[in-house]
Amino acid sequence: MTQQADHHVIARLKEKFQHDAKLNPPRAITSEGEIITSKPEANVPPEALAGSPVSAGTVEGRARVIMKLEEAKMEKGDILVAP
Q: What's the pLDDT at 1?
């Protein structure tokens, strides 16, 4: 260890960071790795949250509409609804 910065490594990491910053992740990926590609309907009322279901089947529970993740207060069994 030389206690010196390796400028070649730093330059490569900066390039990778700039490349990765341009990537667009998919809207949703299931726990099995399936990418959900459906798009929300365009004809929704103003102020409505349009979205795509990401889980098959039917579930009952309290729907929590979360507009800001930092303010989320989820409890076990809640259904997340978020933009």
A: 67
| Max CA distance (Å), the chain | 62
pLDDT at residue 12 in the model: 97
Q: How many alpha carbons fall within 13 Å on the CB side of residue 54?
A: 18
Reading the block at residue 59, the tokens are 């579930």
The verdict on residue 1 lying in a domain is no
Domain ranges, residue 61: 7-81
Confidence of residue 82 (pLDDT cuts 50, 70, 90): confident
Cα–Cα distance, 43 to 27 (Å, whole number): 19
Tens digits of residue pLDDT in 24-39: 888 778 778 888 776 6
72: Cβ contacts below 8 Å, ≥ 6 apart = 64, 66
For the chain, the domain total comes to 1
Q: How many other CB atoms are there within 10 angstroms of residue 30's CB atom?
A: 11
